[in-house]
Amino acid sequence: MLDKPASALRLRERLLDSERLMEETGCYDGITELTLRNQDPLKFETLHTKLRAYCVSAREMARRISASPGVREVGEMVVAIYTPEGDAIALSNGIMVHVHTMSRFIKWMIKNNYEENPRIREGDIFANNDAFIGTVQVPDVMDVVPIFHEGTLVGWAGAVCHELEAGGITPGGDVCLAQERFTEGLFVCAEKIGENDEIRRDYVIRCERNLRMPIYWVLDEKAKVASCIDMRESVKQLISEIGLDYWMKVSKEFIEEGRRAQLARTRQLTVPGIYRGHTFYGHVTSGKPGFQLLGDPDWLYNIPIEMEITTDGKITMDFEGTQPWGYHSMNCTPAGMDGGMFVTLTQHMNFEGLVNDGAWMATELKLPHGTWTNPDNEMVATATSWALLLPAYGVFQRLLSRGFIARGYVEEAFVGQVNSPMIEMGGESQYGTPFGMAHFECAAAGSGALAIKDGLDTAYVGWNPESDMGNIEVWEQSMPMVYIGRSIVPNSGGAGKYRGGCSFVSTWLINKTPHLRLHTSEHSSRVFDNGGMCGGYPAPTCQKHRAVRNSNIHELAAKGQPLAHAPGIDPHVSDYEKNIGGDHVVVEGPYITAPHKEGDIFSHSYNGGGGYGDVLERDPIKTAWDVENGFLTREAADQVFGIVLKDDAEGYPVADIDATVERRAEMRKQRLAKAIPVADWIARERGRVEKADFAPEVKKMYASAIKLSSRFTRDFSDFWNVDARSIFTPGAKS
Amino acid sequence: MTSYSKEVIRDLAAGQLPWPQTRRIMSAYKDDDRFFKMVAVYQDRVAWKDPILLPVSDHLFICQSGDERITRCECGHSFGDYRKNWKLNAAINVRNTEEALREIYPNSDLPDPQWMEIREFICPRCGTLHEVEAAAPGYPIVHDFEPDLEGFYREWLGKPL
Q1: Which of A272, A448, A567, B124 has the most Cβ atoms closer than 10 angstroms to its Cβ?
Q2: Cβ of A302 under 8 Å from any chain B Cβ?
Q3: Could you tell me if B66 lies within 8 Å of chain A, comparing CB atoms?
Q4: Which residue of chain A comes nearest to B125, CA vs CA?
Q5: Among residues A226, A260, A294, which one ends one of the domains?
Q6: How confident is the model at residue A7 (pLDDT cuts 50, 70, 90)?
Q7: A395 and A305 in contact (C-beta within 8 Å)?
Q8: Is residue A238 included in any domain, yes or no?
């Protein structure tokens, strides 16, 4: 093992040296032997457990300082402890996606000579929310403080909160109207925002004057700094107990151990080989106010992923063939892509042992330059990058799951995460004051199914394994809307032997405000942005918004007449239209319209997860329970699953097993009668491909993929036996 | 070392193990003898004799059939050489109209069939729905999985194929 004194090299040189050693030895920081672990494994494990406890405790303490329901109620926060070079040693629970994005932030400062200017000193506080430096999107604001021991930098403590208001062109944090970086909100670009453990007053003033709801951001800053100081002091105390040399060595060994554990876990749980999958995302903004015509208003992205697992256990994910960045809010930086990889790994493979940056080091991402995954223009917006990140890492989860199934660990197979559209809002609050907020009940979508059971209903999102929708009463304190409904959306999980988890829909009455702006993002309404697996279907596409302006709800209530509390199950006429008078509005895709006012009604639904396995194998008894409890409709039970239900004496649905067996046999026959050999289908479709007989958005997608990727071009051409370039990019130079 | 009986693994694979027991399995250290135990469970499930080498989906297996290694449906239908995409030898039903999509999504808003279609890959013998692709019209059929079978057995399992 290479033993480096704590302060022999300047930080930047030390970082470059560490990277060189990794390159040369294949081991983190050149650590080829886990000497301390081998000497005293119990001490080694105990120390890491202590560090993790420091993190968990600091986060919980900090959540009590925050004013934001996003942090207090839903837990949109994570903290971690880093090496001097910025590699995560230990982390808390929470939005773990940011453990590695913070690592990038620290390394960026080191590589940009922050040691010289603005200097890195004891008591300094640095903040960042620039995704090209190291975060996912503007609302993800991170703070780090250096940890010094007797004048030597021995590590960093870092914390991230997702802010509910970022001061962008529209209120909230996920600013879907941002088409360039200049409309995303308040940027803090690797800035020293405090000294001597105190946040600078001028920085606070800047926040107060540039945000719609500064109390959230500013108190979150205080919460983060408090958590960092708490972790810093704990680490200093630990060093005084174990000695500086031991700390400097053991903190690196923890990471190398994490790297080795990830490789071992891959070898234990999967099968080597090439895995492929894809998903899509469709964006519809034609005719919506506010969007500048900088690019096509409606577009379709393909997200193909090829994952390779080698026999040494390394996982490589390759996004070649995907689409270019665009003038929209959904681009992502390599930091965000890293974060997505990290948070997915922690959920699926790092569920025990030393969870840290070592896991990330056992993987590789290939992000083609110029695509939405790695823009070659740092002016692009990334305000809603989750819109593409979540579908992409849902594919990753399905690819990993294919490996789990092949290896026999069916209980780990999971159809994956889905988008969960967000509501952003602002205007005049119910207290008569200006306000802005992101509604974070979206952090409780339906999950994909498992290979052995249904997905989780209203209990999962990819970015935070501690999914929580928050209590209605807490949200009502923070916005001028009151709930008149929050209920399961029937059939919102993808159909399958095991269905995807269901999502929910909320309905609100706008209350005590003359001016409420409501904006939403992350809607793929024209295409599925999720998938099923092993015969399961994707969950439905993002549902349309339904609102009622100038409703007569107060009159109905006064007369004691029934209201509508959810859209209902008729896709053509909602229950709002059936029961409530007023001007009814149906909007596809992002909701960007004129402000609402008291008496209006607004509804918003979230997404369910994809299904697993053949629908004709679903348990009829479980299905009857689903129908009784509103997770499935009778129509779906009958026509999708082939399950015949009858009513018991009290009117509850029960499965007629014999009739179901008969009906399913008939459906299987019909299925075979309708199907044709794939070879015949390819021969027929080839004519359509040759004529490029597709919608303009589909043709544009192919042209863009062909322009960016020779592999996509070759694969497309080989599959259809055509010249893809001449069909979709005629006249272009090859 | 963690290990479970073949009966427990059988019930787990069938989704019939009680949830508390399943959860304990999910939370415990993994049982390193799982692969061959699971293969034995699948082997009991199928009516044919070809040795299963690797499960690749809910009802699809790579097996040794004489000198060949093929992808086989649980019903016995062969989809050919395991290195080739089994989907190319399947039957397909494509849902690319609102009416066809509505059959699967009776109560929800639908995707635009001009932008996206659903492809159902079906066993031509038994009618099992093995895989569903949601793709833009014209998108090539994806080859989901090309396992490194030799490397897996030789280097990870330490056993000859």
Answers
A1: A448
A2: yes
A3: no
A4: A672
A5: A260
A6: very low
A7: yes
A8: yes
A-chain residues near B3 (CB < 8 A):
none
Residue A8 above 80 pLDDT?
A: no
| Chain A CB contacts of B56 below 8 Å | 402, 405-406
Interface contact B12, partner A, CB < 8 A: yes
Same domain as A682, residue A642? no
Cβ–Cβ < 8 Å for A553, A580: yes
Helices (H) and strands (E) in chain A, counts: 22, 22
- Determine contact: B57 vs chain A, CB below 8 A: yes
| Count of structural domains, chain A | 4
A506 and A646 both lie in a single domain: no
| A chain contacts of residue B107, beta-carbon cutoff 8 Å | 490-491, 569-571, 633, 635-636
Of A260, A282, A304, the position where a domain reaches its end is A260
State whether A670 and A683 are in the same domain: no
In A, residues 433-462, which contact B (CB 8 Å cutoff)? 451-453
Residue A167 distance to chain B (closest CA, Å):
33
Stretch A278-295: mean pLDDT? 94
**In this structure, are A568 and A713 located in the same domain?**
no
Q: What is the secondary structure of B82-148 as a DSSP string?
A: TTS-GGGGSEEEEE-SHHHHHHH-TTS----TTT-EEEEEE-TTT--EEEEEEE-TTPPPP--EEE-
Query: Which of chain A's residues have a Cβ under 8 Å away from the Cβ of B141?
Result: 678, 682, 719
Instruction: Specify whether A666 is located in the same domain as A687.
Output: no
DSSP assignment string, A232-269: HHHHHHHHHHH-HHHHHHHHHHHHHHHHHHHHHHHHHH
Chain B nearest-CA residue for A303: B135
Q: Is residue A315 part of a domain?
A: no
The tens digit of pLDDT for each residue in B49-70 reads: 999 999 999 999 999 999 999 9
How far apart are the CA of A410 and the nearest CA of chain B, in angstroms? 6
- Main-chain phi, psi angles of A700, to 5 degrees: -60, -40
Say yes or no: A642 and A519 in one domain: no
Local structure of residue A615 (DSSP, 8 states)? G
The tokens of A156 are what? Answer: 């960093």
Given a cut of 70, whether residue A159 has pLDDT beyond it is: yes
**Residues A214, A91 share a domain:** yes
Query: In the predicted model, is pLDDT for residue A132 greater than 70?
Result: yes
pLDDT of residue A4: 42
User: B136, A679: Cβ pair inside 8 Å?
Assistant: no
- Asked if A545 and A659 sit in the same domain, the reply is no
Which domain, by its residues, includes A652? 615-674
